[in-house]
Amino acid sequence: MKSAVIVFPGSNCDRDLAVAFEAATGQKPAMVWHRDTDLPDDIDLIGVPGGFSYGDYLRSGAMAARSPVMQAVARAATRGAFVLGICNGFQVLTESGLLPGALLRNAGGHFVCRDVALTVENAESAFTSRYAAGEAIRYPVAHHDGNYFADDATLDRLEGDGRVALRYGESVNGSARNIAGILNDTGNVLGMMPHPERVIEPAHGATDGRRLFQGLVEGLMARA
Amino acid sequence: MKARIFVTLKGGVLDPQGRAIHHALDGLGFGGVNDVRAGKLIELDLADDTSDEDIDAMCRKLLANTVIENYRVEKSSKA
């Protein structure tokens, strides 16, 4: 099972995500620099980490989304590789068009940094298969631009197709319909603002995020 | 050739920055401000033969996110 974590200038959750990938897969992920133009052909799992890529210049995720490696990520996603974008990674995935909508400045204007209540809306995706539908979990968030926006037709389509994977269980950032994480139309790309990689060890104070990574690995093994 | 690209949030898209500016203007005692929307101005210094199509493509591919933003191009040949 081959995994990779993309590293942009200004990424700061890349190493945490690598630890989570290694804990779940048993192998160290490749750390792939933004200027690289290729990923291994048989890559199974790609992480787009949190942070402040390119200093959030222009728009959060805008520059990273146009970096050479993202074309390789898009090709891998089309091939069916799992792609997990967390926080800034979610912003990069929307900016690159791999996921619909956009992440706006938080409605309250504040940077939000705390644990938040989430509901697992779709427990059938590879990312969420180890959770129960409707299960209440807690992940930390740490973002300034997490206010999910899409037009009503897009939101209706996401809801109707079961592509809202996670929803906030409380007011966090003004996101449309309290959306915290969405899937692409083939279910192999997930973007989410909360940080599952920050709650995988008892030493973190909670382990709610561990099952997301375990579910991904099970999904990949089932495919093999 | 210079081109000035004005990027503005679409109507209906929340603008917390504009709202904060509005509050600050209120705090300074400026009455009569009905609304504030903040945007971006990007100035490009371009080769004279740059086509309108290329400028438009720059806006669509990078300078504006057309999911949430509109853009307007103002060209001038003056240095």
Automatic annotation (TrEMBL), chain A:
Pathway listed: Purine metabolism; IMP biosynthesis via de novo pathway; 5-amino-1-(5-phospho-D-ribosyl)imidazole from N(2)-formyl-N(1)-(5-phospho-D-ribosyl)glycinamide: step 1/2
Catalytic activity: N(2)-formyl-N(1)-(5-phospho-beta-D-ribosyl)glycinamide + L-glutamine + ATP + H2O = 2-formamido-N(1)-(5-O-phospho-beta-D-ribosyl)acetamidine + L-glutamate + ADP + phosphate + H(+); L-glutamine + H2O = L-glutamate + NH4(+)
NCBIfam families in alphabetical order: FGAM_synth_I (TIGR01737), PRK03619.1 (NF002957)
Molecular function per GO: ATP binding; glutaminase activity; phosphoribosylformylglycinamidine synthase activity
Complexes and interactors: Part of the FGAM synthase complex composed of 1 PurL, 1 PurQ and 2 PurS subunits.
Record GO cellular component, one term: cytoplasm
Gene3D superfamilies: 3.40.50.880
Functional description taken from the UniProt entry: Part of the phosphoribosylformylglycinamidine synthase complex involved in the purines biosynthetic pathway. Catalyzes the ATP-dependent conversion of formylglycinamide ribonucleotide (FGAR) and glutamine to yield formylglycinamidine ribonucleotide (FGAM) and glutamate. The FGAM synthase complex is composed of three subunits. PurQ produces an ammonia molecule by converting glutamine to glutamate. PurL transfers the ammonia molecule to FGAR to form FGAM in an ATP-dependent manner.
PANTHER family on file: PHOSPHORIBOSYLFORMYLGLYCINAMIDINE SYNTHASE SUBUNIT PURQ
Protein name: Phosphoribosylformylglycinamidine synthase subunit PurQ
Residues the record marks as active site: C87, H195, E197
Biological processes annotated in GO: 'de novo' IMP biosynthetic process
Automatic annotation (TrEMBL), chain B:
GO molecular function: ATP binding; phosphoribosylformylglycinamidine synthase activity
GO cellular component, one term: cytoplasm
Enzyme's top EC category: ligase
A single BP term in Gene Ontology: 'de novo' IMP biosynthetic process
Sorted UniProt keywords: ATP-binding, Cytoplasm, Ligase, Nucleotide-binding, Purine biosynthesis
Domain of life from the UniProt record: Bacteria
Pathway: Purine metabolism; IMP biosynthesis via de novo pathway; 5-amino-1-(5-phospho-D-ribosyl)imidazole from N(2)-formyl-N(1)-(5-phospho-D-ribosyl)glycinamide: step 1/2
Function: Part of the phosphoribosylformylglycinamidine synthase complex involved in the purines biosynthetic pathway. Catalyzes the ATP-dependent conversion of formylglycinamide ribonucleotide (FGAR) and glutamine to yield formylglycinamidine ribonucleotide (FGAM) and glutamate. The FGAM synthase complex is composed of three subunits. PurQ produces an ammonia molecule by converting glutamine to glutamate. PurL transfers the ammonia molecule to FGAR to form FGAM in an ATP-dependent manner.
PANTHER family: PHOSPHORIBOSYLFORMYLGLYCINAMIDINE SYNTHASE SUBUNIT PURS
Complex and partners: Part of the FGAM synthase complex composed of 1 PurL, 1 PurQ and 2 PurS subunits.
Family the UniProt entry places it in: Belongs to the PurS family.
This protein's name: Phosphoribosylformylglycinamidine synthase subunit PurS
